Amino acid sequence: MSLPTPSLHTARLRLRAFEDADANDLFALHSSACVLRYWDAPPWSEPVRAEQFITACGQMAREGSGARLAVDRVCDGAFIGWCSLKRWNPDYRSASLGYCFDDAAWGHGYATEAARAVLRWAFDTLDLNRVQAETDTRNLASARVLEKLGFLREGTLREDCVVNGEVSDSWVYGLIRREWRPSSERAPAR
Question: 15 pLDDT exceeds 60?
């Protein structure tokens, strides 16, 4: 079953399918050691990696396993990163959220805004019950994004990744449909 990549809009962002023309911007994003500080893969050194990434986005949609969306800023059309919903399982009504943003876009609420749009699509259109996300335990900014969206930290995966040659832990976060708040309002404490 294919999963058509949606086009989503927020007040400041446009989320859309990747295009071949995005290759240079994508390579710039993923070749940054600063951006990939907490990733379990090294920065890209070959521009062909961007082309492979874009091809994989189309394959993901055709296979029905998820959608990865380019994120552009509305005010100037600049590509600032991407947001994804992967490991989509319609039987279990679940998927995993991921995102990556240029360091110049950090601290402006773009990751939260983009992820909120993807979550709205996930819960309203795909009828998901659960969305999961993981982040390196040292990446406190990413953890804050997830918590602002209503995700709850469910556990720690000990020494599950090697990031830049260092063994690292990851936090697992989960968001259940009944706890989802599509606006910036926080979920009530349990």
Answer: yes
| CB contact at 8 A, 127 and 91 | no
3-class SS at 23?
Answer: helix
Q: What angle do CA 86, 80, 60 make, to 5 degrees?
A: 25
Q: Which residue has the tokens 């709205």?
A: 120
Q: How far is CA 123 from CA 35, 117, 131, 141, in A?
A: 29, 10, 9, 24
3-state secondary structure of 3: coil
pLDDT confidence of residue 129: 96
At 5, the amino acid letter reads: T
Helices (H) and strands (E) in the chain, counts: 4, 8
Mean pLDDT of 61-78: 93
Cβ-contact 143, 38 below 8 angstroms: no
Which tokens is 182 given? 């599509």
The C-alpha atoms of residue 48 and residue 60 are separated, in whole angstroms, by 18
